[in-house]
Design brief:
Oligomer: heterodimer
CATH topology of the largest domain in chain B: MetI-like fold
Number of strands of chain A: 13
Number of domains of chain B: 2
Helix content of chain B: over 70%
Number of helices of chain A: 11
CATH architecture of chain A: 3-Layer(aba) Sandwich
Structural class of chain A: alpha/beta
Distance between the termini of chain B: 56 Å
Number of domains of chain A: 1
Radius of gyration of chain A: 19 Å
CATH superfamily of the largest domain in chain B: MetI-like
CATH superfamily of chain A: P-loop containing nucleotide triphosphate hydrolases
Bound molecules: adenosine-5'-diphosphate, magnesium ion
Chain lengths: ~300, ~325
């Protein structure tokens, strides 16, 4: 199975060195791992097993089995309401904060069940960071926004904090723009800058994985481009799972794509989300195996 | 037939629409009258306060009023040094605020982040009942329970008698606790959920989220709530009248009986002061002072709210 995927990916490289055209979208050759041709090590970081989420008695999404690999960006796509955000929130236990939400199945992170007795929700969220749909900086200074996470996760000294803030802002490609105004309110930044600040804030606690829920949906194309570049730069350090409603974005940034759809189950009145297909992005966008994927993607690509 | 109507009718409202528009006008006038009566009533109160106050200062020197410390306005010969009332007012207010503000914040944090929806459902009615208890009942509660069981036990500086500012202050604090809680809860509810999620997503605990994000983000509303609680404590009459006694001691010891501006007004208003006496006008002079202080606090709260207001977009 893994070898199959690699064949597909490698064939993508050999057919064209520069961005290849797939259903009218350019896919960066960067998407394709290891141009050398040998099988790259696909270290799995996280995996969901038969994941299912209820809100009260409503089954919002079911039967989700997907893997997150090291050095990769995994995209979750699909029509709105199909449970992408819900699944993403399962990956760092943010669903715990919704009183009606009930998660069944398991999410295994580096061998540990996130919902098992060995996992503490706070520690889970520190290791698996999250960036939200709308930039949500705290009503604090730029500096204090980035320093918030480190401060609640241990008590760094003043100097350590300063270094950490600088390093995080640099990794989020925001340092040069804000280094002279760290004491200013985070609200003085533009939307795109605020979102990069939120990324810096998430990186400051040194997470292991980064979850992003439509991080560019409130941004203009230029700001979006900067975030996408940033994702490419950091994915080696932090595997990323991104929800996006933008097909072009999924094709541009991700290595692997999961397509979700909704179905009305026989005994249900409201549609339930299901994972239709999960494969390399190349495959999903060029030769999906499920006709529903094909239909959705060609419909959305126009 | 319709087709022969002149062009200008196209832009005129038809039957039903016309009636709706008339209703609009009636509602508008009604609302304007109500708004105007608010202004009128306020003006009326101020005028009613100002006349006797001016007369009062025609008879009593303003220096005696503001710079002496004996308050026996209804005795013969009278003394009009208002300081005992001012100190009494602020002592009772301070004790009440020390209880109600942290207490209200604590309960509000609990309700907004810790309590399950179930717990909330059971706790809320208790707060509402507490908010609905008549102040007279609180007054007797202060005398019969708080004074002997609480005030006397905790006050290490002196003996506490039957009447004390302490017992009154504690009880006023309890009385305004539900209001402080509700206002603080509203202020916290105004903090966008996305900010709170942002804190949790960084691994913050409930306590860290409360103190690190919810409190600073809701600060303007919380301060405003505190100021409203202050005004409410300053204005409380019945509890203080019953629990703090009716002697205007000039003391800073909360274990002693004291009189506040409000409780003086309540007390003197009950006695039969001839309407044309200095004693009668004293009530209005103190009333004016109370009005100025509460008005000042309200202005302050508004300044604070605009100063600290966070814009989240
Ligand atoms: N907090 C919630 N309470 C109840 N239902 C919810 C909640 N969040 C999402 N849902 C429902 O779950 C389904 C999936 O939602 P969501 O995960 O937000 O989908 P997506 O992100 O793919 O648009 C939708 O039907 C939505 O109405
Ligand atoms: Mg969503």
């Amino acid at each position: 199975m893994v070898e199959d995927m690699n064949k597909v990916m490698n064939s993508g490289v050999s057919s064209s060195a520069s961005p290849s055209k797939v259903i009218g979208v350019s896919v960066y050759s960067d998407n394709v791992q290891s141009a050398e041709g040998n099988t790259p090590a696909l270290e799995m970081i996280m995996e969901s097993q038969d994941l299912k989420v209820h809100y009260g008695s409503y089954l919002a999404v079911r039967d989700v089995n997907l893997q997150v690999h090291k050095n990769e960006i995994t995209a979750l796509i699909g029509p709105s309401g199909c449970g992408k955000s819900t699944i993403l929130r399962c990956f760092n236990r943010m669903n715990d904060l919704i009183p009606t939400a009930k998660v069944s199945g398991s999410v295994i992170y580096r061998g540990i069940d996130l919902y098992g007795p060995d996992a503490n929700a706070g520690e889970v969220r520190r290791r698996i960071g999250m960036v939200f749909q709308k930039p949500n900086p705290f009503p604090k200074s730029i500096f204090d926004n980035v320093a918030f996470g480190p401060r609640v996760n241990g008590k760094p000294s003043k100097q350590e904090t300063e270094e950490l803030v600088e390093r995080s802002l640099k990794r989020a490609a925001l340092w040069d723009e804000v280094k002279d105004r760290l004491k200013q309110s985070a609200f003085s930044l533009s939307g795109g800058q605020q979102q990069r600040l939120c990324i810096a804030r998430a990186l400051a606690v040194d997470p292991d994985v980064l979850l992003m829920d439509e991080p560019c949906s409130a941004l203009d194309p230029i700001a979006t481009g900067r975030i996408e570049d940033l994702m490419h730069e950091i994915k080696g350090e932090y595997p990323i799972v991104i929800v996006t409603h933008n097909m072009q974005q999924a094709a541009r940034v991700s290595n692997r794509t999961a397509f979700f759809n909704t179905e009305v189950d026989a005994d249900a009145t409201r549609p339930t989300g299901v994972l239709v297909e999960y494969d390399s992005t190349q495959k999903i966008f060029s030769a999906p195996s499920d006709p529903r994927t094909e239909q959705y993607i060609s419909g959305r690509m126009g | 037939m319709n087709s022969t109507l002149p062009e200008k009718h196209i832009l005129q409202p038809s039957g039903l629409k016309l009636r709706q528009q008339r209703t609009e006008v009636v509602i508008k006038v009604l609302l304007a009258v109500i708004a105007a009566s608010c202004v009128l009533i306020t003006t009326g109160v101020v005028v009613a306060l100002v006349r006797p106050t001016i007369d009062f200062f025609g008879e009593v020197g303003i220096t005696e009023f503001l710079f002496t410390t004996d308050w026996f306005p209804l005795y013969e010969p009278p003394d009009f040094g208002v300081w005992p009332l001012v100190v009494g007012t602020f002592t009772v207010m301070l004790i009440a605020v020390i209880i109600a503000v942290p207490g209200g914040l604590f309960v509000a944090f609990f309700l907004s982040e810790y309590a399950s929806p179930r717990t909330k459902r059971y706790l809320k009615p208790f707060l509402e009942i507490l908010a609905g208890v008549p102040t007279v009942v609180f007054g007797f509660f202060a005398l019969n329970f708080i004074a002997p069981n609480v005030a006397r036990k905790i006050w290490v500086f002196s003996d506490v008698g039957f009447y004390s500012a302490l017992a009154a202050g504690i009880t006023v604090g309890l009385m305004i606790l539900p209001m402080m809680t509700t206002l603080a809860e509203d202020a916290m509810a105004a903090v966008p959920r996305s900010l709170i999620d942002g804190a949790y997503a960084l691994g913050a605990t409930k306590r860290e989220t409360c103190t690190g994000v919810i409190f600073p983000a809701g600060l303007s509303g919380i301060i405003a709530a505190g100021v409203i609680a202050m005004s409410r404590a300053i204005g409380e009459t019945t509890i203080v009248l019953l629990a703090a006694g009716s002697t205007a001691n000039f003391t800073f010891n909360a274990g002693e009986p004291m009189q506040t501006m409000s409780s003086f007004i309540g007390f003197a208003g009950l006695g039969d002061q001839p309407t044309d006496s200095t004693g009668y006008r004293t009530i209005f002079a103190v009333g004016s002072m109370l009005f100025i202080i509460t008005f000042g606090l309200n202005m302050l709260s508004q300044r604070i709210v605009t100063r600290f207001r966070e814009v989240y977009e």
